[in-house]
Amino acid sequence: MNQYEIAVIPGDGIGKEVVPAAIRVIDTLTDIHGGLSFKWTSFPWSCEYYLEHGAMMPEDGIQTLRNFDQIFLGAVGMPNLVPDHVSLWGLLIKIRREMQQSINVRPAKLLNGLASPLRDPEPFDLIVVRENSEGEYSEIGGRMHSGSDEMAIQSAVFTRKGTERAMRYAFDLAKKRRQHVTSATKSNGISHSMPFWDDVFKDVLKDYPDIATTSNHIDALAAFFVMKPHVFDVIVASNLFGDILTDLGGAIMGSIGIAPAANLNVERTLPSMFEPVHGSAPDIAGKGVANPLGQIWTGKLMLDFMGYEDLGKLLLDAIEHVLVSGIKTRDLGGRATTEDVTSAVIEYLKSCG
Ligand code: NAI
Ligand code: MG
Fold it and tell me: Where is the Isopropylmalate dehydrogenase-like domain (predicted)?
């Protein structure tokens, strides 16, 4: 029996509703299939914690988290009481940086039972691998002068180590999928960093002779996400390009309430963090109507990363089954509650044995 220690940070708003729901689902799955179990340890770090203690997490919070195998997070944010940059930088970004979670992964898939805003799309199933630690989101630069002389400079930083790490992760992922990697570039317009990106891509692909590759400029790639998302398998992108593409990927699926994400420490020397794409949704918090499927799908990403892909697949099957059966929360046009959807997922998992 493999036992794993998971740090749980439900956070604020609907995070406190969908995280317990997803934990019940995952516990059902591990109870049925045996071989592994999760020991969940919950931390109240959130905006509520901030209002009481003046910080999003205690001084030794990062030290505490280091002892866990993974981190399972809901969402943080109480925009009326705590500025968003405080909640974001005080917890999420701090964890991503301190734990060297250098890759962000977000899948987008046309799910059975869920309407995409695209008209009659062919089935698509893609994953964006986003470099999560450097690139365009660097702290190098500054502002000077004022008035009509005012200027700002921000430098993009691309290291061979960081670029190669993201690309190798994408290729290794493609090996387990449909054997194709697309590189998001812009070497026609950006004359130093993007030709470098292309060079590293060409170097890395030599180690993966069985994987087919395409290189697309980011502007064309964005259009293809709308026109023909079914042609993609794994896409590797810089921090900025990946940020924009992943939002588009979430949008073509149909609802922010179902989109999952993972921040990965690919060296596996420190815990990775699994969190849905959506925020704390203050407009519906406390009403019991939040869609738990994004958090549940996030659980699938955690199982996949830990090597339990067979269990991960069962979770996604369960999500699709419940969508097809029409048990949907309000964001998907239905009337079901968080509890209705969660119970339906659990019943399906039990029925599969
Ligand atoms: P949001 O994702 O919380 O909500 C946007 C809209 O989508 C709302 O109408 C909400 O009701 C709906 N929605 C989101 N998730 C849903 C779900 N699971 N089920 C049903 N409906 C859902 O984004 P918003 O309103 O911009 O941000 C609210 C707070 O969350 C802010 O404080 C923001 O900073 C924070 N936030 C935190 C994130 C995180 O912790 N990773 C990510 C995004 C926002
Ligand atoms: Mg974004």
Answer: 5-345
